[in-house]
């Protein structure tokens, strides 16, 4: 009997130990998103080198595998067949004698223009020489280089003639985004060059000539341009060109963000249709995003879900940094102008559980949806459409009293996301605040799509005309949800579902 008691006590102690370890592991992973990419360990910032090849989406990213703060940059690598579930691969590109590996892009050289082999996967990236930078010699530290792979990105060979494009004397000369420009049968590189984007052309990916520049006098006057992207989109039976440019500072809600321009490109010159500053995302946590190569007319965008004002000091749990949800980009006409829209990729619909629909909800005061979303454990998708454009809010909360408030303000014609009471808000540089985005759509009904994933909220309003991405750090999942109004509001349709991963 004594032996049985000892075994029972031992069993209890082991069970307690296992529960303690599980709790620690759970705590260590409490902020990790479930249907967004994040590295297993270490630091992540800019997505780069994204390419679609043989049914697989390749996501490369700026990566410091040895620390959870920005440091010697490598190209990390992940693969997905559906843009939602990602499998991290071994590191693709390591620093070398020419420097660390900054952002860039990848293309498929179908015609073997570079001589590496037919259908070679070619990465074009910035070599950054920290020794030159630290010497304060005044010499430029950033140059463009190549690497190629003949086995779908499993192994890489750096070109022996690197760098292929040396800086003309600029300190900021980085983040090449390369595309094939069919009209001139040549490659076009869009490069971040301080306060502008510069266009270079090449027949072979090795010899480059400057053909144009854009940026002076356009867009936001603040910050350094980074991670540009130039691509065309079909619209109204024709096409227009879109130029993305991330800015290190000066975003509408503070810190870093990504502006865009809609216009025309003739192989040398980009001519915008508008003078006003437009942002692909008005939230604080979408930066350095670019699109996948080799996807035809479909343009798929993904960004870094962070902000340089606090990126190195947000909570870390052995890893730090994640990507936004992948998004389909399109153009939509509003009045006489064209605006960029972004919505979660259609593949996400295949990851949702049962979709629940409620129609014609009359809300005056509070409407409690907590029982309907509690089981999702803070990871779900919600969509709603109103009948008229009256003010309302969605209040997400938990039993600790933490809350995230998302809403539409009719008087000021804007959307907002208030994270001032969302959990850990003592993060420096004005993290705890109400984040505001303008309403671009015209007309009465308001539509929202909200993605919530552990520690991030992505809001797509009016079919993606206004977008906000923000992170937060609550101590337990938001399993309470109320729709709140001051005046009666009719919700024409509300849909919600959990997301499986």
Summarize the structure.
The protein has 3 helices and 34 strands. It is mainly beta.
Q: What is the 3D form? A: globular
Structural class: mainly beta
Q: Count of DSSP helices?
A: 3
Spans of 5+ residues with little confidence (pLDDT < 50)? 1-27
Radius of gyration: 24 Å
CATH architecture of the largest domain: 5 Propeller
Give the CATH H-level superfamily of the largest domain.
Glycosyl hydrolase domain, family 43
Strand order of the largest sheet: 23-34-25-30-31-32
Describe this structure in words.
By secondary structure, this protein is mainly beta. Helices cover 7% and strands 46% of the residues. The longest helix has 27 residues, at 2-28. It is globular, with a radius of gyration of 24 Å. Residues 1-27 have low confidence and may be disordered.
Output the keywords.
501 residues; mainly beta; Tachylectin-2, Chain A; Jelly Rolls; 2 domains; six-stranded antiparallel β-sheet; 3 helices; 34 strands; 7% helix; 46% strand; globular; disordered N terminus
Q: Could you give the topology of this structure?
A:
Blueprint lengths: L1 H27 L13 E12 L2 E9 L9 E7 L6 E2 L11 E10 L10 E9 L1 H6 L6 E8 L7 E2 L15 E8 L4 E7 L4 E6 L6 E6 L10 E11 L2 E10 L9 E9 L4 E3 L5 E2 L7 E5 L7 E6 L14 E2 L6 E8 L2 E8 L11 E8 L2 E3 L1 H4 L5 E8 L5 E6 L5 E7 L4 E8 L12 E5 L8 E7 L2 E6 L4 E6 L8 E5 L4 E10 L3
């Amino acid at each position: 009997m004594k032996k049985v008691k000892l075994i029972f006590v031992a069993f209890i102690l082991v069970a307690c130990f296992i529960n303690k370890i599980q709790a620690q592991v759970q705590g260590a992973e409490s902020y990790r998103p479930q249907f967004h990419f994040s590295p297993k360990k270490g630091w992540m910032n800019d997505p780069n080198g994204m390419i679609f090849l043989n049914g697989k989406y390749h996501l490369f990213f700026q990566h410091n595998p040895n620390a959870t703060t920005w440091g010697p940059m490598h190209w990390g690598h992940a693969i997905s067949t559906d843009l939602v579930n990602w499998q991290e691969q071994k590191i693709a590109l390591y620093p070398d004698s020419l420097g660390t590996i900054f952002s860039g892009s990848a293309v498929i050289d179908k015609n073997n223009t570079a001589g590496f082999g037919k259908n070679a996967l070619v990465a074009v990236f910035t070599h950054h020489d920290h020794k030159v930078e630290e010497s304060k010699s005044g010499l430029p530290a950033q140059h463009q280089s190549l690497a190629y792979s003949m086995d779908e990105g499993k192994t890489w060979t750096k070109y022996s003639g690197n760098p292929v494009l040396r800086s003309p004397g600029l300190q900021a000369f980085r983040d090449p985004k390369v595309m094939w420009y069919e009209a001139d049968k040549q490659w076009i590189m869009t490069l971040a060059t301080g306060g502008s984007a510069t266009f270079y052309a090449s027949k072979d990916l090795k010899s480059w000539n400057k053909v144009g520049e854009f940026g002076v006098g356009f867009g936001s006057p603040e910050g350094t341009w980074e991670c540009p992207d130039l691509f065309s989109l079909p619209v109204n039976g024709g096409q227009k060109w879109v130029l993305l440019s991330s800015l290190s500072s000066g975003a509408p809600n503070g810190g870093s963000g990504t502006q865009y321009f809609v216009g025309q490109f003739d192989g040398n010159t980009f001519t915008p249709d508008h003078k006003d500053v437009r942002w692909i995302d008005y939230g604080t946590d979408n930066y350095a995003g670019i699109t996948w190569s080799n996807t035809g007319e479909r343009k798929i965008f993904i960004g870094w879900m962070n902000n340089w004002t606090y990126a190195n000091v947000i909570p870390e749990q052995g890893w730090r940094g994640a990507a936004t949800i992948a998004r389909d980009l399109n153009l939509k006409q509003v009045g006489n102008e064209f605006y960029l829209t972004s919505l979660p990729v259609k593949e996400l619909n295949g990851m949702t559980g049962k979709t629940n629909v409620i129609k014609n909800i009359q809300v005056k005061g509070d409407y409690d949806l907590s029982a309907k979303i509690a089981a999702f454990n803070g990871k779900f998708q919600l969509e709603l459409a109103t009948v008229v454009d009256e003010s309302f809010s969605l209040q997400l909360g938990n039993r600790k009293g933490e809350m995230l408030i998302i809403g539409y303000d009719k008087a000021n014609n804007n959307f907002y996301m208030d994270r001032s009471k969302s959990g850990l808000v003592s993060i420096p540089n004005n993290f705890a605040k109400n984040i505001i985005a303008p309403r671009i759509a015209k007309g009465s009904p308001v539509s929202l799509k909200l993605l919530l994933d552990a520690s991030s909220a992505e809001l797509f309003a009016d079919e993606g005309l206004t977008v906000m991405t923000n992170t937060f750090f609550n101590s337990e999942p938001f399993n309470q949800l109320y729709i709140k109004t001051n005046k009666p509001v009719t919700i024409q349709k509300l849909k919600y579902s959990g997301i499986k991963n």
